[in-house]
Amino acid sequence: MSNTKYSIGVDLGGTNIRVALLSEDGVIQKVRKEPTEANLGPGHVIYKMKRMIEEVMSGQNVIGIGIGSPGPLNPYTGVILDPPNLPGWKDIPLKALLEENFCIPVIVENDANAAALAEAHQGAGKGHSSVVYITWSTGIGAGLVFNGKVFQGAFGNAGEIGNTVLRSSDGSSVGVLEKLASGTAIGIQGKELLGLEENNAGAVFQLAASGNQQAKTIIDDAVKYVAMAVANLTLTLNPSVIVIGGGVMLGNPTLLHELTDIAKTYLYESMQNQLLIKTAELEDEAGLIGAGLLPFN
């Protein structure tokens, strides 16, 4: 067995599981990907995860296993509480189960926090002491990394911005961010207001690009609400950089300029030039790399 230290990173998603062997600098050496088959229950998924870990760690000096998982979860105990896209996962002691099997430390972390760690160390947040990572996709969440470490909060729930309450500037609507601006919310509005057959945010963006004014209003409203969230995070945490990833942002990178301009309008004038927002650089690899960095972090 080599003296070189490696970790195992696990990206546990509702659709796929990815397991990778990573070096100490976060470089993926080997990776496996299989469907999660979450509908078959936690026992089936955990058995598959163990097999995949065994395949990639064979013969290597692995110091620990990091897992990025959908929340809610308790990162201190490693218990998966009740994630909506993992049916039947109620109070599953994933950390304990894997430590018993592999006899090495296991760290379980919210998937947004894992992605934030990767972007802070290797991506758009590299070189910054305080990084807020926002994932803008089917849902909306955030991860916070200060001085290279994930900030989890007293009970592990820091960064759950999708459930923050916002009011439009004219007071006409009140709601939580995720239900106002996520890819799912955009798709629902497209179906209800534009008569689209499916809940498809991509189709709304296509109509907006072709000049459909109603579709453009849906997108503009979503950008406005995310800009509000960015401003609130800036006023609360004053980070050196905010990194935005996820399918909505990465699929429509031209939104960045508009979002930045709107966010500045909610800030003190003295803070406006300090605001730095960047698009994520690691794309789909962020969660996997971040999970692999956890044992070294």
**Beta-strand content estimate:** 15-25%
CATH superfamily of the largest domain: ATPase, nucleotide binding domain
| First and last CA, distance | 23 Å
Could you give a short account of the major beta sheet? 5 strands, mixed
Approximate helicity band: 25-40%
Shape: globular
Mean pLDDT comes to 94
Q: What's the helix-strand series?
A: EEEHEEEHEHEEEEEHHHHEHHHEH
Q: Which parts are unreliable, with pLDDT below 50 for 5 consecutive residues or more?
A: none
Structural classification: alpha/beta
Rg calc: 20 Å
Structure, described:
The chain is of the alpha/beta class and 297 residues long. The protein has 2 domains: 5-110 and 285-296, ATPase, nucleotide binding domain (Nucleotidyltransferase, domain 5), CATH 3.30.420; 124-281, ATPase, nucleotide binding domain (Nucleotidyltransferase, domain 5, 2-Layer Sandwich). Helix content is 39%, strand content 24%. It has 11 helices and 14 strands. Strands 3-2-1-4-7 form a 5-stranded mixed beta sheet, sandwiched between helices. Strands 10-9-8-13-14 form a 5-stranded mixed beta sheet, with helices on both faces. A hairpin with a 3-residue loop joins strand 8 and strand 9. The longest helix is centred in the last third of the chain and has 25 residues, at 213-237. It starts with a strand and ends with a helix. The mean pLDDT is 94.
Q: What attributes characterize this protein structure?
A:
alpha/beta, Nucleotidyltransferase, domain 5, 11 helices, 2 domains, 39% helix, 297 residues, five-stranded mixed β-sheet
